[in-house]
Design brief:
Blueprint (H helix, E strand, L loop, with lengths): L5 H4 L8 E13 L3 E7 L7 E6 H4 L1 H4 L7 E10 L7 E12 L15 H6 L8 H23 L3 E2 L5 E2 L11 E2 L8 E2 L5 E2 L9 E3 L4 H11 L1 E9 L12 E10 L3 H22 L1 H10 L4 H10 L3 E4 H13 L16 H12 L3 E7 L15 E9 L3 E8 L4 H10 L8 H8 L5 E7 H9 L20
Helix pairs in contact: 5-7, 5-8, 5-14, 7-9
Bound molecules: 4-amino-1,4-dioxobutan-2-aminium adenosine-5'-monophosphate and magnesium ion (MG).
4-amino-1,4-dioxobutan-2-aminium adenosine-5'-monophosphate binds next to β13, β17, β18 and α14.
Length: 465
């Protein structure tokens, strides 16, 4: 008989029929006469209960069926007597694929700390928590593609190895090449590294935006969705050295269109989670974060506040004057810390905020310069519990202004000539933004640390798995 996935089986009403399920044992308990095995196959957070007549299958045979063992079960589907489950299987036959020695298998049935689970990142997808998180991660990726596809955006692939530093923050991991076919050795026989594979110095991309702009000024509206890399030595619960970013870029959109798109996009993703991942979201809500579902529903109801940076600073300064203590100072020109962002969102407005028109000194070279000569048409979307979840802007479309800004910042022109061509030939107003995929997942799952929403986190001193 063909295997039925547990997610489908739990919805089945074909009582009396013979079924097969395969999966990993969560627990086995019971008496001398009857055993209950909770089996999970990863298709859902929910287990199916296997009822075993001990005499029929034999006590000795059942012994190695411990937490973590993999088995295949044939049996009869019956309506469950127990509360909290709809169906169960009365086993007629069990095959053991593999055992998991209780003395060494780390995932015994008990609470494990997130720190411990990070040390066994190769096994943690087998826990309820990480099963839920990674199913949600998949669903969010799907929702993102669907959102843009339905709107007529094209998914555009930008390179991972690049010679330009989009954000200009000097956080690029350099690519060194060792030419395996032509190893040069020194007199002691040590390999001499050849850093000249590309004929110039290259790095892992920090953003696909610059190439995304090339595409938007050809295909109209595009998005990227790929891995990005930042060598920032910030050991925080919100930073990864390798993270995934979604970057839509739209020709003819101004900053207001950009804000509208960002708000619609993020609400679509949150709605998708509520509509399609409720079992997993509810599990995480009940287990870790009792306010999760309410927070998700909250951002859907609220219209996001739109506020110039300068106004935001005034609000923060007033809070300081009234005695609110921040760790970092507040003044016009400062790059806001996450505590400042969260104050605006969580305490002042009590809903998401889009902060606009930042000082040009703290933003990247490509942003459209405002008339005041001091600010640029940037927009950061700030979220409860997260702080910055999206960063974007209207782009500088004027060749001379962009050229001068690149020069002012001492960005090597030899890496930028192709980018400048978008402004040299048929330049148009355009805008875009970047959503940090893991920041979105932090919000949707309620997890406290960004290391726990990506299968294999890359952070300073951590690339074990
Ligand atoms: O604000 P950022 O640096 O903007 C850009 O990279 C632009 N090129 C985007 C664009 O306009 N196309 O990064 C965008 C988002 C941030 O708001 C944050 O959500 C996420 O990427 N992010 C990180 N997520 C995890 N770990 C890090 N180290 C991150 N750095 C940025
Ligand atoms: Mg940013």
């Amino acid at each position: 008989i063909k295997r039925t996935k547990i997610v489908d089986l739990l919805k089945s009403t074909a009582f009396g029929s013979t079924v097969n399920v395969k999966g990993w044992v969560r627990t086995r308990r019971g008496s001398k006469q009857v055993n209950f095995i909770a089996l999970n196959d990863g298709s859902t957070i929910n287990n199916v209960q296997i009822v075993v007549d001990v005499d029929k299958l034999g006590e000795e045979f059942l012994k190695p069926i411990t937490t973590g063992a993999s088995i295949s079960v044939n049996g009869t589907l019956v309506q469950s007597q127990g509360k909290g489950q709809s169906v169960e299987i009365q086993a007629t036959e069990i095959e053991i694929y593999g055992t998991a020695d209780p003395a060494t298998y780390p995932l015994q049935k008990k609470g494990h700390s997130m720190e411990f689970l990070r040390e066994i990142a190769h096994l943690r997808p087998r826990t309820n928590t990480f099963g839920a998180v990674f199913r949600i991660r998949h669903n969010m990726a799907y929702a993102i593609h669907k959102f843009f596809h339905d709107k007529g955006f094209f998914y555009f692939h930008t390179p991972i190895i690049t010679a330009s530093d989009c954000e200009g923050a000097g956080q690029m991991f350099q690519v060194t090449t060792k030419n395996l076919y032509n190893l040069k050795k020194d007199e002691n026989g040590s390999i001499l590294y050849d850093d000249d594979f590309f004929g110039k110095q290259t790095s892992l991309t920090v953003s696909g935006q610059l190439e995304g702009e090339l595409a938007a000024t050809a295909l109209g509206q595009i998005y990227t969705f790929g891995p990005t890399f930042r060598a920032e030595n910030s050991n925080t619960p919100r930073h990864l050295a390798e993270f995934w970013m979604i970057e839509p870029e739209v020709a003819f959109n101004d900053i207001n269109d950009n804000m509208e798109l960002a708000e619609e996009f993020i609400k679509y993703c949150v709605q998708w989670a509520l509509d399609n991942c409720m079992d997993d979201v509810k599990f995480l809500n009940d287990m870790f974060d009792k306010g999760l579902i309410e927070r998700l529903q909250g951002v859907l109801k609220d219209e996001f506040v739109r506020l110039p940076y300068t106004e935001g600073i005034k609000i923060l300064e007033e809070a300081v004057a009234k005695g609110h203590k921040f760790e970092f100072p507040v003044y016009w020109g400062v790059d806001l810390a996450s505590e400042h962002e969260r104050f605006l969102v969580e305490e002042h407005f009590k809903r998401p905020v889009i902060l606009t028109d930042y000082p040009k000194e703290i933003k990247a070279f490509y942003m459209k310069q405002n008339e005041d000569g001091k600010t640029v048409r940037a927009m950061d979307v700030l979220f409860p519990k997260i702080g910055e979840i999206i960063g974007g802007s209207e782009r500088e479309a004027d060749y001379d202004k962009l050229y001068n800004r690149i020069q002012e910042l001492n960005i090597p022109m030899k890496d930028m000539w192709w980018y400048l061509d978008t402004r040299r030939f048929g330049t148009v107003p355009h805008s875009g933004f970047g959503l940090g995929f893991e920041r979105l997942l932090l919000f949707v799952t309620g997890m406290a640390n960004i290391r726990d929403v990506i299968p294999f986190p890359r952070t300073p001193n951590n690339a074990e798995f």
